[in-house]
Amino acid sequence: MTQIHTSPHTPFSNSVSRMMTLVILTLIPAMLAYIWFFGWGILINSLICIVTAYLTEAWMLRLRKRPLWPFLSDGSALITALLIAFALPPIIAWWIPALATAFAIIIAKHLYGGLGYNPFNPAMVGYAMLLIVFPKQMTAWIPAATENGFTLNFVENLHYNLFAELPADKTYDMITQATPLDMLDIQVALGKTVAEVEAGFIQFSPYFGDGWDWISLMFLFGGLILIYKRVITWHIPVAMLTSIAVLSGLAWIINADANPDPLFHLLGGASMIGAFYIATDPVTASTTPLGRLIYGAGIGIITYIIRAWGGYPDGVAFGVLIMNMAVPTIDYYTQPRVFGQGGAND
Amino acid sequence: MRKLWSFRGGLKLDGHKQLSMQQPITAADIPEYLVIPLQQHIGEAAYPIVDVGDRVLTGQIIAQAEGYVSAPVHASGSGEVVAIEDRPIAHPSGMHGMCIVIKTDGKDEWITLTPHAEDYRQLDPSALRNLIRDAGIVGLGGAGFPTYIKLNPGTKKHIDTLILNGVECEPYITCDAMLMQESARQIIDGLMIMRHALQARQCVIAIEDNKPDAIQAMHSALTSQESTFIEVVTIPTRYPAGSEKQLIKTVTGVEIPSNRLPLQHGIVCQNVGTAVAVGQAILEGKPLVSRIVTVTGHALHAPRNYHARIGTPMIDLLQQAGLNEHKLARLVMGGPMMGFEIPEHTSPVLKTTNCLLAVTQDDVGQSSAMPCIRCGECTRVCPAGLLPQQLYWHARAKDFDMTQKYNLFDCIECGCCTYVCPSHIPLVQYYRFAKTEIWAQERDRKKSDHARERHEFHQYRLERKKQEDEERRRKKKELLKNAQQKSDKQDAIAAALARVEAKKAQQKQEAGE
What we know:
Shape of chain B: elongated
Shape of chain A: globular
Number of helices of chain A: 19
Strand order of the largest sheet of chain B: 1-14-13-17-15-16
Low-confidence stretches of chain A: none
Oligomer: heterodimer
Strand content of chain B: 15-25%
Number of domains of chain B: 2
CATH class of the largest domain in chain B: Alpha Beta
CATH superfamily of the largest domain in chain B: NADH-ubiquinone oxidoreductase 51kDa subunit
Structural class of chain A: mainly alpha
CATH architecture of the largest domain in chain B: 3-Layer(aba) Sandwich
Low-confidence stretches of chain B: none
Helix content of chain B: 25-40%
Number of helices of chain B: 13
Distance between the termini of chain B: 141 Å
Strand content of chain A: under 5%
Helix content of chain A: 55-70%
Order of helices and strands of chain A: HHHHHHHHHHHHHHHHHHH
Order of helices and strands of chain B: EEEEEEEEHHEHHEHEHEHEEHEEEHHHHH
Largest sheet of chain B: 6 strands, mixed
Radius of gyration of chain B: 35 Å
Largest interface: A-B, 46 and 63 residues
Mean pLDDT of chain A: 88
């Protein structure tokens, strides 16, 4: 063997698959909470997304003549699949998650050059496509089990997702409803105060009285583990959540009748999964410490603007995609100070 | 207690230091052949002054320094010069180099030494520097820059702090730690001489806190008078704390600007091994013919530090340390972070060989590189404050202008970025490639500039000649024309005169008739 090995001559201290595995493992608490509160739909969607992700990933790798094993085992396709599954309502026709995942892997990932080269977060591209193309299906969530006492069982849920048929005693309108963020948006627009909406609809219960808050808390828990394990840094989540809290806090202080309190924004919608699992996607995020603060804050601001004034109940996906575009510029202008250049003692 | 500063980035690494610290420093056997390269330092290679067939004594100069940045080379054993030829040597790019080969006679017969034990304080600093230069001493920490140059404060500069570097932040390497434990007094003797040469106000001996025995030894070797201006400073263990500019920052808080030398800020760093060599050169008159080499790694039965002669084939040391050939995956000179692989195990020990690391397959990662996922871990650990991932991007695209915009030349090649990279990209390798390419381009540009200048001058000369010729022709023509016009006028005048004459003659004739 004539090839000379280069330094460092040490075991690897880290790997892409280790990072991705940790991301996936820390999603498990949130996944369990999801199943607990919303039934088996998330699991069915996850399976559909994962199968689609691996099939399309393998197909793309073959088309692009890349080695299959290193890329299929890196775990990145699995994360894309899971994030899409988390974003979708539990009861939904099977081909919608499949379409979103295929779109994410083929268009958003591989057409841009595959792992490491995609400027946009693939899962959010897939999800944003659904938001635009299938707005009705995207808002039809089922209530949490704590709210009216039932969810579909596994077979019923699977049956609906595959064949769009519900059990005889249940109708689509009976089991679906808007998300809290969505409902609040609609009702406040109709002239009700926040307090009236919260008192009048079953989506709303005291904090940690229903599923949404607990799931958000699980994302927070998993995210803190990722920071502790140095898979992600604190900058993006802190900046994003802080900007959401500050903006919603200001609006709440100014007019509490039209604006829910900051905790509602932090625990509602995709704030937590967005801050810890979506915005922190290394490939599409800023890489400098200051840049990450700007990037995270930007996502938080756009998210709040869309929630408060936009046409969509939530804005995390669009916040991430818009800030993805700004990353090269942010990185260029936020380079850290180089040792020996413009130091404090100069 | 001295206030310490910190530098950004860096890594906590497993030291693996105990592996080679179980045994005292052992004198290595005299090898049958000593292979002594002419280039063991930064600068010009030395020029051989012995011939094949000459008998040489230990300590005899066999190659002279060439130019200012250079160092002489001495015979590290007595015997006969049997060859002066190209041999495989330790070099990052696996090059061969000119070597003087001595067949040793086993007698180790020394030249007569001239010590300056008592009178070195009376010597002029420049005389001291000359002695150090003649002893062939270069930085033994690994870079191999001629020591006497770093002991020259120049005409204007006052040296405030002389830092003795006993940090040894690379894993596995223990030669400096063992030297401090066993020869603390010699280190301080050498330090005193260097202090005299530099006329430094204060000295700091910096040691990482993972070497309590060395710290203890250095403390107890200091006399109470010496400890008024020499301070042993314990610094936190964090790679690359021993890198010159990072160490200066840690100890003094001064951040040496990227294009300047510590000397220009009144600070000089020297390695503890270099101090011992300087002490021996002055106090005993001994030139640099040997050094302490850490021979370690999991492919050895008995890792330890050897006192080895410069020119000893590496394989000899490995075998003395109980090499298990089957387990050896690669031989590395230097530490695991910055060292480079030595494909030819017969390559000789150099003045800069601080460590031989016998790496097994289990010690190194195996998988191939994945694409960069822009995780930014490299940025977090970079002690130079660079964006390694952007540098990689541009180096890979051969966009060398952009690599320089991202401060490529501030990279100290410490390897932290490569160590943490989850995609296992050999980042430092890309930076070395980019640096080499830029240097090559600069050389080419200089060459082509030179050629262009010559060409332009040639063109200019041709042009000038042409113009001169034309000018000359023009003048000649004018001259000719003038001459012509002149003669035309004269002709006209002559004709007129002739006509007048003729008329007169006619009138005369008419009047006469």
